[in-house]
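Sequence, please.
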């Protein structure tokens, strides 16, 4: 992650933009929500700031994600980890990602989160969606990263359980949707989709 962030800072359209507190806390929020666990030192290293800066940022992050009913729990020996239901965590990740518009920062996030093996699958899904819906996504880098994060979470057994959503109504509402049909075709079963 040090290399990827160094590359971002050296090649970003606006290198000072990453150092902006809002951009940094958004970056930290996504790292906190997507990693099973981390710690102040790792976040400081990932963001090229001091441990104390991260501690101060986490106060703001805790407030922001509380709106999604998520908390960041710190435990001696275990570090920091998010606590909340999966649908809330995914909603908070999506909300945070929509605030990042610099492709270099999105790329650095992808590298920090080790998403390379999920990126191609996300690209393939987006290609299918675009083809099926006859559209082109302007925010494709954000969507690719978001899908990659979701695919990694699914792969690591972070599933939305039926009690978190009205599953039957949701399925009934989208079964005729072209996006759903493309996803179903890709996955092979309703459960997987």
């Amino acid at each position: 992650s040090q290399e990827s962030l160094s590359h971002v800072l050296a090649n970003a359209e606006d290198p000072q933009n990453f150092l902006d507190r809002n951009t940094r806390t958004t970056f930290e929020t996504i790292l906190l929500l997507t990693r099973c666990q981390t710690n102040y030192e790792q976040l400081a290293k990932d963001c090229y700031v001091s441990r104390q800066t991260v501690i101060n940022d986490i106060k703001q992050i805790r407030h922001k994600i509380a709106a999604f009913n998520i908390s960041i729990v710190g435990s001696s020996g275990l570090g920091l980890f998010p606590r909340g239901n999966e649908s809330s965590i995914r909603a908070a990740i999506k909300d945070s990602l929509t605030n990042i518009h610099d492709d270099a920062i999105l790329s650095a996030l992808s590298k920090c989160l080790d998403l390379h093996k999920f990126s191609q699958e996300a690209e393939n899904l987006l290609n299918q969606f675009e083809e099926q819906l006859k559209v082109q996504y302007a925010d494709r880098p954000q969507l690719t990263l978001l899908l990659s994060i979701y695919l990694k979470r699914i792969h690591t057994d972070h599933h939305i359980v039926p009690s978190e959503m009205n599953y039957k109504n949701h399925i009934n509402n989208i079964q005729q949707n072209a996006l759903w049909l493309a996803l179903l075709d890709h996955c092979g079963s309703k459960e997987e989709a």
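The longest strand covers residues 71-75.
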